[in-house]
Design goal:
- This protein has about 240 residues and is of the alpha/beta class.
- The chain contains eight helices and eleven strands.
- The strands form three sheets. It has a five-stranded parallel beta sheet, sandwiched between helices. A three-stranded antiparallel beta sheet has the order 6-7-8, with no helix packed on it.
- The radius of gyration is 19 Å and the shape is elongated.
Length: about 240
């Protein structure tokens, strides 16, 4: 739990302080934003550090629905919506925008804490390990350096294979180029200022993406690097 980082987005300072205080007592690293603009600015520069977002539906500038959709273009991080609205249509709209869960204000912190734990646990269980199939259906075959995607076999180079596996293992989290370099070339400093990683990512997109110019699986995180973005499950 102590390694998990949570972003709270709400324009009510009392709610921000209450949730933040309780989450910190529970051992989480907590970040806050009082508007949609601030949340998106933070997420675009440091969203790779966030494991879960608690997002208010009613914000003073950009609505929570728009913020949720914008985050979903960058990350598959779990999102729990907070709102004073209790109508079925609002809940459906929130879930269809990409949220994973929905809590109506006023709420008991213990309920929020339980839902946070459940979402983080589900995320951990979905992590790809040991070259198995990921939740979206990419199967890694280390012996042949191939992956199975959408019922087709794709042959990769060793570095492409290792980079893709690293991205999928960290699904929804942006990785710095330096993080990728250190993981894939652990004994080399030759790539500090080169475009080698970008070239490998471009080749992966050509091999994996339906439209490499508008990638859906391997996203670019501005000023950071890259992330693997699993599609939103159909039931959301």
């Amino acid at each position: 739990m102590k390694d998990h980082s949570i972003l709270i987005v709400d324009d009510d300072n009392d709610i921000l302080a209450t949730i933040k205080g309780n989450l910190k007592l529970d051992g989480y690293s907590v970040h806050t934003a009082s508007s949609g603009q601030k949340a998106l600015k933070y997420f675009q520069t440091a969203g790779y550090r966030i494991d879960l977002v608690v997002l208010d539906l009613m914000l003073p500038d950009i609505g929570g629905i728009q913020v949720c959709r914008a985050i979903r273009t960058l990350s598959a991080v779990p999102i729990i919506m907070l709102t004073a609205k209790d109508s079925i249509s609002d809940k459906v709209l929130g879930l269809e925008s990409g949220a994973d869960d929905y809590i109506v204000k006023p709420f008991d912190y213990l309920e929020l804490a339980a839902r946070i734990k459940a979402r983080l646990r589900n995320r951990k269980q979905a992590t790809v390990l040991n070259g198995c199939a990921d939740p979206v259906g990419i199967t890694f075959r280390p012996d042949s350096l191939t992956v199975a995607v959408d019922n087709r076999e794709v042959v990769l180079t060793r570095k492409e294979f290792e980079i893709l596996q690293l991205l999928v293992q960290n699904a929804g989290h942006g990785l710095h180029r330096k993080q990728i370099r250190d993981a894939v070339w652990p004994d080399s400093n030759l790539y500090s200022w080169s475009r080698t990683i970008d070239v490998h990512i471009r080749n992966l997109r050509i091999k994996l993406e339906k439209n490499p110019q508008e990638p859906n699986l391997i996203k670019t995180v501005p000023s950071v690097g890259y992330l693997y973005m699993p599609p939103i499950p159909p039931d959301l």
